[in-house]
Amino acid sequence: MDFLRPETLAEALALKAERPDAVPIAGGTDVMVELNFDHRRPPALLDLTRVPELQRWDEGLRIGAGVPYARIIAELGDRLPGLAMASRTVGSPQIRNRGTVGGNLGAASPAGDTHPVLLASDAVVEVASARGSRMIPATEFYLGVKRNALEQDELIVAVHLKPAAGPQQFSKVGTRNAMVIAVCSFAISLFPAEKRVGAAVGSAAPTPRRAREAEEFLASELDFSSPKPLLDSVKREFGELVSRAASPIDDVRGSAAYRKHALAVMARRTLGWAWQELIDGERACA
Amino acid sequence: MTLTPAELTSAVSGGIGTSPQRPDGNLKVRGEFAYASDLWHEDMIWGATLRSPHPYARITSVDITEALKVPGVYAVLTHLDVPGRNLYGLEHKDQPVLAVDVVRYQGEPIALVGADHPETARRAMKKIVVTYDVLEPVVDMETAVDDTPLHPGGNLVRHVPIRRGSRDVTADVVVTGRYEVGMQDQAFLGPESGLAVPAGDGSVDLYIATQWLHVDRSQVAAALGLPEEKVRLTLSGVGGAFGGREDLSMQVHACLLALHTGKPVKMVYNREESFYGHVHRHPAVLYYEHGADHTGKLVYVRTKMYLDGGAYASSTPAVVANAATLGVGPYEVDNVTVDAYGVYTNNPPCGAMRGFGAVQAGFAYESQMDKLAEALGMSPVDVRVRNAMTEGSVMPTGQVVDSAAPVAQLLKLVQDKPLPAGTSTDIRELPGGVSNTTHGEGVVRGVGYAVGIKNICFSEGYDDYSTARVRVSMVNGELAAAVHTAACEVGQGLVTIMQQIVRTELGIERVTVLPMDTTIGNGGSTSASRQTYVTGGAVKAACALVREKLAGRTDIGDEVIDETTEWRHRATEAIDPETGQGNAHVQYGFAAHRAVVDVDVELGLVRVVALDCAQDVGRALNPQAVVGQIQGGSAQGLGLAVMEEIQTSGGKVRNPSFTDYLIPTVLDMPPMSIDVLELADPHAPYGIRGVGEPPTISSTPAIVAAIRAATGLALTRVPVRPEHLTGT
Ligand SMILES: Cc1cc2nc3c(=O)[nH]c(=O)nc-3n(C[C@H](O)[C@H](O)[C@H](O)COP(=O)(O)OP(=O)(O)OC[C@H]3O[C@@H](n4cnc5c(N)ncnc54)[C@H](O)[C@@H]3O)c2cc1C
User: Fold this and answer.
1) B374 CB neighbour count, 10 Å cutoff
2) Residues with beta carbon inside 6 Å of ligand 1?
3) Per the database record, which ranges form the FAD-binding PCMH-type domain (chain A) (predicted)?
4) B655 touches chain A (CB under 8 A)
5) Where do the structural domains in chain A lie, given as residue ranges?
6) How many Å lie between the alpha carbon of B436 and the closest alpha carbon of chain A?
7) Which of A248, B50, B121, B251 is 20 to 30 A from B529 (CA-CA)?
């Protein structure tokens, strides 16, 4: 197996163009597991950890694909609370030191924790090849179970996000209190100025997906200009719509029925927390 | 003048009753301890095992031609290459070393490859062509006996009936229940591994992580067709065992390859293969009926239980006997009817695991005691105390409990501990933790109690002994001792205990523990909570012989005092095959738990907030090790209560990895408050009582009782899943 170690992004893209069968490796927390289990024996690994362009984020919140979770939590938690919450639930401290959002996107597991947040907060994935670069909205990035929109010669360069325009929440169910793959997960972002809500589910369909009907329902129900405590019926209806957006399966981690049920509960609760934060924020400003 | 041990103790530190530092502790924490998987030999090759993908199938052909052609392959072996008896097993020799014409479980070994690199071996393995005639697997333990016979004698491995008192009694209050226990795994962290080194004379040395060197050796020698002295075993670094290493895994396979190729052969399972490579805890279905008078006094207990032994017998007969003889728990009951059945199916083979039959029964009888308390309007502790066994109580087998049985005291100790503060507002301490599933919504607290009983040491007339050799000589002008046994250190701290015993008995501070191997006699199994008792007893006895020769001298010049002795605990008896009566067990151990849980009743997520324990250990030879055993045993019980299960479907394992077989993390296991009682057992060396297993028994039902208290749900199956709590 060849081990390719580019020092710049241009070099990495050139290598990927030359060797489309080379498997990129960032933190390696997915790749190495596959190698150890003999699920995959690629002819080459393309090590991205030395590519400086991938290791940084800028004030425009273009976050390099190789920025590990630990740094997202520490450095971006104030501007991207949703992504930080999701990052905090990934694996263990060791995994958060190594693992990256780029890797989460590369693996495109339906259970990846950052996906619902990226969907709910209108993230755009910047990908590039020797041919040029493309901006892919997160909503168009996930194509199937562990399949994404990357072409053979492309690499994920960065994720573009906007600083949270309002309260954000992320919630994940697992059958252990830490270090657990999501049985299902949910993210919500409020955009008060635009009077709308982003909502997405994880680990409850072949791909992470947005809950559009639920979003539309809230856009029409919520009074962003003078937020008042929510009616239970609104939260409940929202939960139902989120649950309906999912098409989960029964597997060793949980039953489809449980996932639907849990999504409704998480949607209800996170909406309540986010909305309360908005009310508290208004009060603080008043 | 001869000195008594007590006088000698005063001169040396690190004797019994203290907690000297373990030699392996720092190494393990730093990741520097050499486990069997780190074994290395110049010139060694690697072994790999081809396993059946089917739970039940007829093998119609095996073609190894292409595999042999792979460059770097030294050998491809099948059952035709097993020179001795191609059957082994702890109690029944029913399991093939390599499958002949039928496979009875998914993962059953069929062929072996020896190659210059693990990768080569794996690639070659893929070129072995096996054709199967796939058969309908038998997977239901309750109907297995009447299903397709999987072995010549049918599918009943053992039926243990117990008949005590009258069956013709009635009670004021009757509660019944059906309970299920899922298949738990030992989940030791060091996977199966070993290194077989052939010697020129046709003999072989095996360096191996195991629980019982001598029984491994007799099985390996029989399979290799060698006399036992031609098979030498040395214990290598063991990364946990919990029963999962009592049966053979790759022992014979590595030796076969080594003798066949003339090269040292290393085999290491990866995590997935490990799930197929060792036995698990028997899943069980248990039916119970408890009758009590209106004061809560038990009138009778009737139970019928099924334990799924899977494809091969392993230690099923003994597990069934434990479940039966301990089946009413630590309670006095005059009228008992038990029928316990261990059966063959095409599920993964099950055998020894910490608690050994007592865990399955414990979940059921403690659930019943709670149900009884509710029916009587009594508190769970009161109904248990009302029936608690004491010294002098009679077991369902008729055996009189002839040392301390402080069941009521243990319960009261945990009951009287302060309760933790109310539900936290910090999400890190709520169900789900930083997964941010609740900020307090839906969270309900519950408290539950349980107590359990476990037999210590081997039972039913088994000649259970250990051999110890103690050698004393002068080193640098000082007396120094070396102790040698074949008893396996699997991480429990036996090395330290043996040093402590020698220090106390001989007053010699410098004590070396020699490698554990088969050049000395049998040390017995590191199981049944027995090594401190039995091997500790043997070391103590060998020390007594040495002490006599030492005769108080502190300078023995060039003399070497070298004494070897066998030591056995008092004999037990077989139980009557029709009535189950007999003095089956050596000693009984007891532990009680109080669990406090926070349950998110809407999401079905559980946080164990407190799991306090009281246990009688007779005498704490190493107090820190005792507490460590209680914490570990409780954690393993917590795992069974809320997460640990090998899920099978049609005999196939669905979650053979630590991604989906979840064991508790440090954030799942609360800090424990532990009371250790030291009520000496006059029959045991130093009065000790085995420690390792009792806490595993009571932890699970205490947690489930607490979840019931929080939710009001019946919860008759462990592990409790979110689906059970949310009805989804
Ligand atoms: C013990 C453990 C616990 C875990 N727990 C969680 C969890 O709780 N939640 C969760 O979501 N995940 C979890 N994971 C999975 C994993 O940590 C995450 O998916 C992580 O985000 C992967 O990042 P990485 O940098 O390590 O990726 P890598 O393993 O390096 O790569 C992952 C995939 O992405 C591709 N890739 C990486 N970078 C790029 C790039 N720049 N361009 C194109 N392709 C790229 C790789 O080729 C590969 O296919 C866990 C893993 C382990 C081992």
Assistant:
1) 14
2) A 23-31, 33, 48, 65, 89-91, 95, 98-100, 102-104, 106-107, 112-113, 155-156, 181
3) 1-166
4) yes
5) 168-285
6) 5
7) B251
Superfamily of the domain at A168-285: CO dehydrogenase flavoprotein, C-terminal domain (3.30.390.50)
pLDDT reported for residue A283: 77
Contacts of A235 in chain B (CB under 8 A): none
Give the pLDDT mean for B298-305.
Answer: 98
Give B151: exposed, middle or buried? Use CB within 10 Å, 0-12, 13-18, 19+: middle
So what CATH class is B5-33+465-568?
alpha beta
> Using 50, 70 and 90 to split pLDDT, how confident is the model at B11?
low
pLDDT recorded at residue A48: 98
Distances (CA, A) of B504 to B69, B474, B508, B595, B626: 61, 18, 8, 38, 18
Give me the mean pLDDT over the B308-318 stretch. 98
The model carries a pTM of: 0.97
Give me the pLDDT at residue A286, please: 59
Residue B3's pLDDT is what?
37
For the domain spanning B36-135+203-238+245-277, the CATH number is: 3.90.1170.50
Give yes or no for a contact between B542 and B549, defined as CB atoms under 8 angstroms apart: no
CB A193: neighbour CB atoms within 10 A?
A: 9
From A128's Cα to the closest Cα of chain B, the distance in A is 32
Is there a common fold for B5-33+465-568 and B280-459+576-726?
Answer: yes
- Share above pLDDT 70 across residues of chain B, in percent, rounded to a whole number: 98
pLDDT tens profile B247-271? 999 999 999 999 999 999 999 999 9
- Report residue A39's pLDDT band, with 50, 70 and 90 as the boundaries: confident
Nearest alpha-carbon partner for B452 in B687, B196, B265, B697? B697
On whether any CB of chain A is under 8 Å from the CB of B429, the answer is: no
Contact B439 A273 (CB under 8 A): yes
CATH 3.30.365.10 is right for the domain spanning B280-459+576-726: yes
| pLDDT tens, position by position, A78-114 | 999 999 999 999 999 999 999 999 999 999 999 999 9
Residue B53 has pLDDT above 50, yes or no: yes
SS3 labels along B156-177? EEEEEEEEECCCCCCCCEEEEE
Q: Check residue B208 and give its pLDDT.
A: 98
Look at B655 and A252 and tell me if their CB atoms are within 8 Å.
yes
**Domain spans, chain B:** 5-33+465-568, 36-135+203-238+245-277, 280-459+576-726
SS3 content of chain B, % helix, strand, coil (to 5): 25, 25, 45
Q: How confident is the model at residue A284 (pLDDT cuts 50, 70, 90)?
A: confident
Taken as a whole, chain B contains a residue count of: 728
Largest CA-CA distance found in chain B, in angstroms, rounded: 77
Q: Of how many residues is chain A composed?
A: 286
Contact A233, A241 (CB under 8 A): no
Q: Say if residues A178 and B665 touch (Cβ distance below 8 Å).
A: yes
